[in-house]
Design goal:
The chain is of the alpha/beta class. Helix 1 links the parallel strand 1 and strand 2. It has 2 domains: 205 residues, Alpha-Beta Complex (Spore Coat Polysaccharide Biosynthesis Protein SpsA, Chain A), CATH 3.90.550; 110 residues, no CATH class. Helix 13 runs antiparallel to helix 14. 45% of the residues lie in helices and 18% in strands. InterPro entries: Glyco_trans_2-like, Nucleotide-diphossugar_trans.
């Protein structure tokens, strides 16, 4: 996928929109408190609400020249919609921002200063604030001052989830961002995109600032959908694609322990949490998938998990109802 060879604006923000209502307006306005030049590419993915109409009205009045608006004739999902947005990029760095999320005031100016100070790294990763129904929480503090990491270090941090697997939370050099694409999977397309991204990025800058607001207060959050067998199949299939891609392209350079640790978190911890948060009864099919993954995992991988993650997995093996109680009493049930 190729971008247009235009040097300005400095940033291209790509936003897929689907029935985001008034949140899209909040997203758009959050970018305006910056001096850095930017374009905001918003692709509406066949919404049935009026949220995108407000953006079109602003563009028609010429009050929002930064807006680049397009509509998909049919719903194609966030991954393919982001690919469409990437094909329209003209900026030097790309950020992804979901329509129901928003950036912190001055985030673009902050990032531009860091990018120029560190002589244009391939990727800049930054922190986010999670907004849940019962409170807010900042993401892990992976550094206290801006620091550049090697490709191997950043790749390991991505695989261990120190760097968030979502498309947002990072500024990516445009030629690199547009050389990649989101695969046509129903879920977890962003993990595959980021796997290739950190497999290629040679210079990765870590910035300690909280620059993104991730809003999970809506009942439509993906983690609150019932974890049915159909949902299980989607997530498990996405994991199998991720695993095969890693083994084919990255295992020789980075080894298998990183993959084992990520499998424990994605197939183990994540699947257990999805069941518990949705307050469903323990599903024997989900349990078989989780236990099969645990049997395949080495003690070396298990030792790399946090104490909380180990406790969750052990409690699930011994008593699934106990693990659900532990999760519902924790911050994850927010």
């Amino acid at each position: 996928m190729e971008c247009k060879a235009v040097e300005s604006p400095f940033f291209s923000i790509v936003t897929p929109n689907h029935n985001s209502g008034g949140d899209l307006e909040r997203c758009i306005k959050s970018l305006r408190e910056n001096q850095a030049t930017f374009e905001h590419i918003i692709i509406d993915d066949a919404s049935s609400d009026d949220g995108f109409l407000w953006a079109e009205e602003q563009a028609a009045l010429d009050t929002a020249p930064e807006l680049v608006l397009r509509r998909n004739p049919d719903n194609i999902g966030p991954g393919c919609t982001r690919n469409y947005g990437l094909s329209l990029v003209t900026g030097r760095y790309v950020l992804f921002c979901d329509a129901d999320d928003y950036l912190a005031p001055g985030a673009l100016d902050n990032l531009k200063a860091e990018i120029e100070a560190f002589e244009h790294p391939d990727v800049v990763v930054f922190r986010y604030r999670l907004h849940c129904p019962h409170g807010d929480m900042d993401s892990v503090q992976f550094c206290t001052a801006s620091v550049e990491h090697t490709q191997r270090e950043a790749f390991g941090d991505f695989m261990r989830d120190t760097i968030v697997s979502s498309p947002w939370g990072k500024a990516i050099r445009a030629d690199l961002a547009c050389a990649l694409s989101f695969p046509p999977l129903p879920v977890s397309q962003d993990s595959l995109y980021n796997l290739d991204l950190f497999g290629r990025a040679e210079r990765v800058l870590y910035v300690p600032a909280v620059l993104y607001h991730f809003d999970k207060r809506s009942d439509g959050s993906l983690t609150r959908k019932p974890f049915s067998n159909q949902e299980l199949d989607k997530f498990h299939r996405s994991w199998q694609v991720f695993e095969d891609h890693y083994r084919t392209h990255f295992a020789a350079a980075h080894g298998l322990p990183l993959l084992e640790v990520r499998a424990l978190r994605f197939v183990g911890v994540s699947f257990i949490m999805r069941q518990a948060i949705n307050k469903t009864q323990d599903d024997s099919r989900v349990r078989r998938v989780i236990l099969a993954q645990l049997r395949q995992s080495s003690w070396t991988a298990l030792r790399q998990l946090s104490l909380k993650e180990k406790a969750l997995l052990i409690s699930y093996v011994l008593s699934p109802p106990l693990s659900r109680q532990l999760i519902r009493r924790s911050q994850y049930a927010s």
